[in-house]
User: Which sequence fits this backbone?
């Protein structure tokens, strides 16, 4: 990383398009939603830009911070998607509904790619969430490993009330974090979850005053970077696999991972 002097690293701009900006400073990348005038409403073009951001990360990046400019993290899907016209150069959702099941599945799978890379085993992702995080905005925050929220945060899953379902990968992490019964209640009622409840039920790792959000995320990023990268990656992979393993299988996975770490520390790795 080029520096102006020994204490001032340069933040490099890697991508800036369709409401998404990616910058990199040493081992920390920041993905910013950059349309505050529309409360960072989401569109297919934005999803493609998010997917591109994930593919553009330098190998040196260990922590990715996701944030939204303005008063809201993301107010969800841009309602223009439901108009007959849709977005310029894009099929409207009404047109998509008239297509075959296979075509519709392929389009939704493409959209989901914007939400999947945040949990890569070689990264730790943090959503810094303020104001509204509704629908697709809620699911984008859920796509990250960790969430730090401002005291004005308002999470809500509104898809069911619109006759739809949450389909941008948010259902799995939501159930994992808060349990089936509470996840069902949050989705079906579409109610707001505020900062105090989000922290209490496990949606948020930390809730802070709005003015302290950036500092809290910087402190958490520094703490994550303090541990050796390989150990962090092994630990993340170990924890991610818990739900698919029995107790005995998890014990075996722990032994195998620790064996790799010990061999690496002894200089005996591959």
Assistant:
């Amino acid at each position: 990383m080029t520096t102006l002097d020994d204490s001032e690293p340069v933040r490099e701009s890697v991508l800036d398009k369709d409401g998404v900006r990616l910058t990199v400073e040493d081992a920390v990348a920041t993905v910013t939603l950059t349309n505050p005038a529309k409360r960072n409403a989401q569109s297919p073009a934005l999803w493609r830009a998010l997917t591109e951001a994930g593919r553009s990360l330098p190998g040196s990046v260990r922590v990715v911070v996701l944030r939204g400019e303005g008063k809201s993290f993301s107010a969800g899907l841009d309602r223009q998607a439901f108009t007959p016209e849709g977005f310029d150069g894009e099929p409207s959702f009404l047109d998509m509904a008239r297509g075959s099941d296979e075509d519709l599945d392929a389009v939704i799978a493409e959209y989901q790619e914007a939400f999947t890379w945040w949990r890569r085993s070689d990264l730790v992702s943090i959503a810094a969430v303020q104001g509204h995080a509704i629908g697709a905005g809620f699911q984008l925050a859920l796509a990250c490993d960790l969430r730090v929220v401002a005291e004005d945060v308002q999470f809500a899953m509104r898809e069911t009330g619109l006759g739809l379902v949450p389909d941008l990968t948010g259902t799995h992490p939501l159930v994992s974090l808060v349990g089936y019964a509470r996840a069902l209640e949050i989705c079906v009622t579409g109610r707001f979850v505020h900062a105090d409840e989000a922290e209490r039920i496990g949606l948020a790792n930390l809730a802070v005053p709005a003015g302290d959000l950036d500092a809290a995320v910087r402190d958490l990023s520094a703490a994550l970077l303090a541990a050796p990268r390989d150990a962090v990656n092994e630990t993340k992979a170990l924890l991610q696999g818990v739900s698919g393993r029995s107790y005995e299988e998890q014990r075996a996975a722990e032994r195998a991972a620790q064996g790799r770490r010990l061999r690496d520390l002894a200089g005996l790795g591959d």
Notes: The mean pLDDT is 94. The two ends are 28 Å apart (CA to CA). The first strand starts at residue 3 and ends at 5. DSSP finds ten helices and twelve strands in the chain.
